[in-house]
Amino acid sequence: MTDPRRSDLNLDTEAAMRLADGSLRPHERAAAEQRLRASAEGREMLEQQQRVVRALRSAGPVPPPALRAAVEDQAGRPRGRLKWLRIIGMLGARRWP
Fold first, then answer.
1. Residue 57 and residue 71 in one domain
2. Nearest alpha carbon to residue 45 among 20, 24, 21, 16
3. Could you tell me if 51 and 69 lie in one domain?
4. 35 and 80, same domain (yes or no)
5. pLDDT category, 57, cuts 50, 70, 90?
6. How far apart are CA 45 and CA 16, in angstroms?
7. Are residues 58 and 77 in the same domain?
8. Is residue 10 located within the same domain as residue 46?
9. How many domains in the chain?
10. CA–CA distance, 66 with 59 (Å, rounded to integer)
11. Whole-angstrom Cα distance, residue 68 to residue 66?
């Protein structure tokens, strides 16, 4: 048999996450906020999720792994014009007799 309090806790955790990240619809938002703020445990849960959301948003967007790999691959190779500028620079630095 499942503990009904456990089920409520799971629902409240989800509500706290969705309330903190702004993904609840306006009519769901008011009900979830009222339910969470009604208890010390709910307030703590909401505050924790708000801290997590702030931390994640302050870190900025994370590029997908494939994009990161492509950029790193490109950065490792000299490219067209840049390659020629390096060669010309080396020739210009060389002392000619």
1. no
2. 16
3. no
4. no
5. confident
6. 6
7. no
8. yes
9. 2
10. 19
11. 5
Q: Which sign does the torsion angle of CA 1, 17, 41, 31 carry? A: negative
Which helix (H) or strand (E) segment holds residue 65: the answer is helix 65-75
Pick left, alpha or beta for residue 90 (phi over 0 → left; psi -120 to 50 → alpha; otherwise beta).
alpha
User: What residue type is 70 in one-letter code?
Assistant: A
Does residue 25 carry a pLDDT above 80? yes
Q: What angle do CA 26, 42, 46 make, to 5 degrees?
A: 60
Q: Return the pLDDT at 28.
A: 92
Domain that holds residue 79: 64-97
* Number of Cβ atoms within 10 Å of the Cβ of 90: 9
What is the structure's pLDDT at 68? 82
**Segment among 7-11, 13-17, 23-27, 74-78 with least mean pLDDT:** 7-11
Q: How confident is the model at residue 6, as a pLDDT?
A: 44
User: CB burial class (10 A; 0-12, 13-18, 19+) of residue 21?
Assistant: middle
